[in-house]
Amino acid sequence: MNRRPTLLAALALTATAALTLSACGSDDDSPAKDSDTIAGADTGDKKSPSPATSAPASDDRPKIELPSDLSYTFDWPKTGDKEKDAVLADSEQSIKAVDQAIVKQNALDKAYLYYYEGEAAAETQRFVQDYVDHKAAVTGSYRFYAPEVNVGKDGTASLSYCEDQGKAFVKYLETNKIKKTEVTAKSYVIYHTSLKKNDKGVWVIQKIVSQSGSAKCQP
Known about the structure:
The chain contains three helices and six strands, in the order βαααβββββ. α1 runs parallel beside α3. By secondary structure, the chain is α+β, with helices and mostly antiparallel strands. The radius of gyration is 16 Å and the shape is globular. Strands 1, 2, 3, 4, 5 and 6 form a six-stranded mixed β-sheet that branches. β5 and β6 form a beta hairpin.
């Protein structure tokens, strides 16, 4: 998941669900550590969120609480289509849920497990665990933009979007030191996610693939 400022130059995980750790020109070279398979995973096979993409109310949705040094901008306007807007809303929450797991230093945090399943959940666990192992978190601001969403009649969907990581950084918890990195082409990342609607009506991520330095996402 090339979705956060990273501890590593790059971490290639799988061909179908690459959750790489190479944002913001980070130059650390310590290897990522594999963790145990996540329970229930299928291993075989701004600022404040905008009203346009606020997640639907649900009694069992996990609460996401992030520190004040993290902010988000989601330039994801409403599409006018109920299901497409739900995909955008749930995807927004899934992004924040992963950051919460990193901040809480909990690779099995229930919030992200609510939005990720199977292969994507297992890879996300490893992604978060790498931060835990290095006693590191994330800080700064993120911007997400240029979403393209498609919903099938079979309860599946796809979403691609861009992220600007230029103002987001790694923070080491033991020293409270922030690793500032320069903005490069790799600070702009494109994501492609595959989702399905579960029995709770939540659009959960099955697979996620990312590419840093995407020409489509460059300013």
